[in-house]
Amino acid sequence: MLLVMREYRRFTASRNSMKHSKRLKTSLSWLNTPPATVTIAAGFTHLELSRTCNDVEFILVMGNESDKTRELCQREKITKVPHFSFYKSKEKIHEEEGIGPDQLMGDVLYYGDSHSGVVQLNSREDVEKLIDDHKLDHKLIVLDVGLKHCGPCVKVYPTVVKLSKQMDSVVFARMNGDENDSCMQFLKDMDVVEVPTFLFIRDGEICGRYVGSGKGELIGEILRYQGVGVTY
C-alpha cells in the first residue's frame, strides 16, 4: 500500500503567521496563484483522493503544530510547504513540494496505481507471459516503459489509465526499469534509452514504439497501430 504524507503549516492571524505566509508565497510564486488558493486546492484534492483511492493511505502533518512535528520536518529536511512524501513498504519512494492539485493527482496515480486496467509488470517473465496470453486474440499491447522518478512518465500516466478504460481492444501495461535488475535488463535488451518509451506489441512481435510524453501523439500512434488513419 502507498502512504502519502502531506506537511503544511497552520496559519493564525498574527505577525508570525504573516512571516509564514510570505515564505509560502515565495515558495509557490512560480504557480502564479495566490498561496492560500494553492494550499486550499491541494487540501481539497488531498481530501478527495483519500476518499477515492482505497489502496492509498493519507496522513496529514502540520509542521508547526508541536515540537514533534517540527522535529519531523527538520529530520526530513522539509523547508517548503505543501510538501508531499510517498512511502511504500516503509521506504520513501518519492517526494514533491509546492505542487498544485493536478500534479498531486498524477503522482498519487503513478506511484499508487494497483487497481486500474493497466497491467503492472515487474520482470521479463511478466512481459513474456502477457505476450503469450494475447497471441491468440491478436490484441495490441501498449507497454509503457519508464522510471520511478521520471517527470514525463508521471505526466503521461493519467492518459494511459484513461485510455485503458476506453479502449477495450487494447491491452495497456507498464514497467519501471529501475524496479529491479530484471526490469533494467529488459530496458537494455529493448534498446530503451529514453523514457517514457511505449512499445507496441502484437502477435508476439514488437511492431513499433513511441518515445515521449505527448498525449496527442501517443493516442495517434495507438490508433495508427490499430489500423486507423491518422494525419499529424
TrEMBL record:
This is Thioredoxin-like protein CDSP32. InterPro entries: CDSP32, Thioredoxin-like_sf, Thioredoxin_domain. CDD domains: TRX_CDSP32 (cd02985). Residues 137-217 form the Thioredoxin domain. SUPFAM superfamilies: Thioredoxin-like. One of its GO terms (molecular function) is oxidoreductase activity, acting on a sulfur group of donors, disulfide as acceptor. Pfam families: Thioredoxin. Coiled coil: none annotated. It comes from the Eukaryota.
